[in-house]
Amino acid sequence: MPDDCPRPLDFETRQIHAGAVVDAETRARVTPIYQTAGYVFDDFDDGEDRFAGRSRYRAYSRNDNPTNAVAGRRIADLEGGVDGIVVSSGQAAIAAAINALAEAGDHILATRSLYEGTREMFRGILKRQGIAFEYVDDDATDEEWAARFRPNTKAVYTETLPNPLNQVVDIERLAGIAHAAGVPLVVDNTVPTPYLWRPIEDGADIVVHSTSKWLSGHASVIGGAVVDAGRFDWAAHADRFPQLTEPPRPGVASFVERFGAGAYLAYLRSVIVLEYGPTVPALSTFLLLHGIETLSVRMDRHVANAQAVAEWLAERPEVARVYYPGLPTDPHHTLAQKYLPLGPGSIVSIDLAGGQEAARRFLDALQLISPMTHIGDVRTLAIHLGSTIHAKLTEEERLDAGITPGLVRLSIGIESPRDIIEDLRQALEA
Ligand SMILES: *Cc1c(COP(=O)(O)O)cnc(C)c1O
């Protein structure tokens, strides 16, 4: 992207050009797949400079690869952050983002409605690492939130548009609550993508993604990303974040002193990702970049199809309830209008009146739509939640999370809406 553009470029242009560098040697237009582990040192001193981070050249692909760097910069640009990094999966992105903020003995507050894989990590491996997660109800007041913070609370964690039930989160309000308590707001923005919603504009400090979903769109890669808004004042809360504000070794300046607004992401890249090594292959990132180039075009089509399908499903006698905030009857319709003017994503969940047996007949009758776990594909996908993603929970925990026996999640693709609806019709009638 030319640095001397006369005006800021639009989203549709940046999704194609942001972060790209034309290869100096070959002048290749498309970002090449730099499938290499390492990079040759010019001489002895250059090796020393590379390790000290004083060279513009790289040392090792575990945390720094040219193909991956383009994707990190592009996603950061689209989200409105100062820096970003791509990693091996959405789960890896969440684990890295949390590990850069909290350690054993720390505490994190989270909204209750989260992707079940995230909840599994919070009550599983991260809890065993000694990080305590505490959930706050969706309808908690500001006072109830404020009362839950502790001196060792390191972040508030949420999602913009949690699936399967699409309970749009009031990000501006949560950012205010987190900042009043002196901690950053971490937001998983996988479902709307930065085309439909940029939570940094509403006050979020750190944004995480599963790039396996709509950002790539073709369902041929697993990947994740972390973006830093660069606005949180770590130095003002130095007692909470010594990893960023204190010298890592005697004689070395702190991350905040060395990297300023980019301190969090510099720490995440040069410590967390370097030490744990959740590296995404450059080939996967090449495919991800091809997906991002068409993001806006696909998302417009995803939301138009989802709206048409949701409206059609709302009229069906077999369907007890449709969860889609694009419907005026949905309880989150007003928040969706505020935060998602281009459309509230393409997850449409339905509660079948006939319960689990009806879900079994419906899923087994689908012909065009694929029964599988995944979302954000150009293809339409369907899954029964109670018997798969939420199967490890007790019946009571499932109902508590709104996972009723007849609940089926649809990830609406970009096929012809007529063909999607026709397959739904014949499966509902089965
Ligand atoms: C899928 C998903 C993840 C996990 O991403 P993977 O790439 O599958 O590891 C995290 N958050 C949300 C909202 C997701 O949909």
From TrEMBL:
InterPro entries to which the protein is assigned, alphabetical: Cys/Met-Metab_PyrdxlP-dep_enz, OAc-hSer/O-AcSer_sulfhydrylase, PyrdxlP-dep_Trfase, PyrdxlP-dep_Trfase_major, PyrdxlP-dep_Trfase_small
Q: Which cofactor does it need?
A: pyridoxal 5'-phosphate
Top-level division of the source organism's lineage: Bacteria
Keyword annotations of the record: Lyase, Pyridoxal phosphate, Transferase
Quote the Pfam families the UniProt record gives.
Answer: Cys_Met_Meta_PP
Enzyme Commission (EC) number:
4.4.1.2
Q: What are the recorded GO MF terms, alphabetically?
A: cysteine synthase activity; homocysteine desulfhydrase activity; methionine gamma-lyase activity; O-acetylhomoserine aminocarboxypropyltransferase activity; pyridoxal phosphate binding
Q: What class of enzyme is it?
A: lyase
Where N6-(pyridoxal phosphate)lysine occurs, residue numbers?
213
Entry GO CC: cytoplasm
**Could you tell me what reaction this enzyme catalyses?**
L-methionine + H2O = methanethiol + 2-oxobutanoate + NH4(+); L-homocysteine + H2O = 2-oxobutanoate + hydrogen sulfide + NH4(+) + H(+)
Q: State the family it belongs to.
A: Belongs to the trans-sulfuration enzymes family.
Stated name of the protein: homocysteine desulfhydrase
Q: Could you tell me which species this protein originates from?
A: Leifsonia shinshuensis
